[in-house]
Structure formats: C-alpha cells, structure tokens
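Suppose you are handed only these lines of text.
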Amino acid sequence: MKKRNNKLTKDFGSAVRNVDDKFEPSELQNPVPWPFIAIAVALAIFGGFTLYLDAQATDDGGDEQLAKTVADKDTAPAKVTAADMDEADGDMTAAQGAALFATHCATCHQTNGSGVRGAIPPLDESRYVLAEATAPIAILLRGISGPIEVKGNTYNGRMPSFYATLDDKEIALILTHVRSSWSNAAEAVTAEQVARTRQAFAGNLNQPWQGGFELQSVFGIASVSSDPIQAQTEVTAQHAEDQEVAQ
Ligand code: HEC
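From them, the structure of the protein bound to heme C can be written out as follows.
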C-alpha cells in the first residue's frame, strides 16, 4: 500500500509514533484512607445499637400503654346509655323542627306562632294545631282556602299546601315543633302518621281545604271556638302529663 505524502498526514503520523504502544491503563495504588473506614465502622455500630434500643423502647412502651388502658377502663365513665341517646336525639329533632318551621312557616305565622292580626291565624293555642295529629297534618299537606275561625277571629286568606315541597319526616318535625312550642303541649307527630294521612288523601292533595266548615265535617273540629265540641280537641291532662314525662 502506497503511503500518502501530504503534510497533514505527516504531522499526525509523528504524533502517533511518539505514543508508547506498550502503555496499559491500570488502577493506581490508592488505598481507602483509614479515617473513612473508622467513621463507617462507627456509624454501623451506632446504627445497630440504636435499632436495638428502639426495639427495647417499643416493648417497654407497649407494656406501659397496656397498663394505662387497663387503668382507664376502671376509671372511664359509664357507657353512654339509651336515655342519653334519646335525649341527644330529642335535642336534634327539636332543632331540626325549629329550623324547618323558621324556613317554611315563620314568615306568615311568625316565630312566636302569634300569626298576623287580621291576616294570618295564630298557631299558639290553636285548636287545629292541638287536635288529633291527622288534622294538622292534613292542613299542611293540602293547605286551606276558605274562612276559618281561630281564637275568636275569622280569617279568609290562603294557606299554601306542602304536600309537594315537604316530605313526611319534615312535616312530622315541623308539627312536633309547633305542637310543643309556646303554650302548646300536644303529642309529637311521627313520619308514619304523616305517611298514613298522605295516603288517606292521596286523591285530592292538590285541593286545599275549604275552610273551617270542611275541617269540622272531616275531623270533627268545631268551626267556631266557642262550640262545646272544642273541649274534645283541647289537650287532655293525660297528654300534658306525657309531655312532662318525655322532657
Ligand atoms: C303564605 C303564608 C303562610 C305560610 C307560609 C304558612 N301558612 Fe299556615 N296559614 C296561613 C293562612 C292565611 C291560614 C288561614 C287560612 C285561611 O284564612 O283560609 C293558615 C292556617 C294554618 C293553620 C290552621 C289555622 C290555625 O291557625 O291553626 C295551621 C295549623 C297552619 N296554617 C300551619 C302552618 C304551618 C305549620 C306552616 C309551615 C309549614 C304554615 N302554616 C305556613 C298562611 C300561611
């Protein structure tokens, strides 16, 4: 093979020829410095020792916790009783009833149940509110449109229906609130009672009651307060007593 003879090749050629062909790369003699080894060993010993101590600590803590739990058990207050639960439930129900009343009824009947003179009848001491639960339930479901007399005054406005906007539970909560607030002391109303009443009037929920006369014919509530029939619808002594026991 004929060797090329230009300047550039010549220069490189001499550079290459100067390199030691025998050179082999090899690791230099460079031992790990002893302080490094000393630190690594110290850390290893420290780590092992710490693990051992931690294991011991967990065991001790476990015993301590167990002893504490046993001690707590002896001094812990008695379990929450069914009565406590009922009381808490009662508070909850009352608060929910009051809140629903504020939202759906108080704008017209007022927060204190007094109604508005000449326009909205009172719920406080109303014989319709205190009657057998079916009557006030039916009034809420269907509303009223027609003359109605409450506590000596006759009203002829419009009470809206709630059959579509309130469910059984909500109506029960509202009526329970109304029947136990201010001077009222009548039995609580249950969602089951509302469901039954809703069923009973299922065909004409969207027709408001035509006033006091229709309510008298269906529920036997006197259309005029002075009527002796009213006595039947007043809260009985037994109801008042039940209410006291329940509180
Ligand atoms: C838009 C105003 C309005 C709202 C809201 C309203 N009512 Fe009435 N309510 C009336 C009017 C007016 C009457 C009387 C109807 C009439 O004059 O024909 C009445 C009558 C009643 C009666 C029978 C009469 C009496 O005083 O006992 C009851 C019970 C009653 N409402 C309860 C409620 C309850 C409970 C609510 C809430 C769920 C409610 N109302 C919401 C206006 C209202």
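What can we learn from it? Strands lie at 144-145, 148-150, 153-155, 158-159. The longest helix spans residues 34-75.
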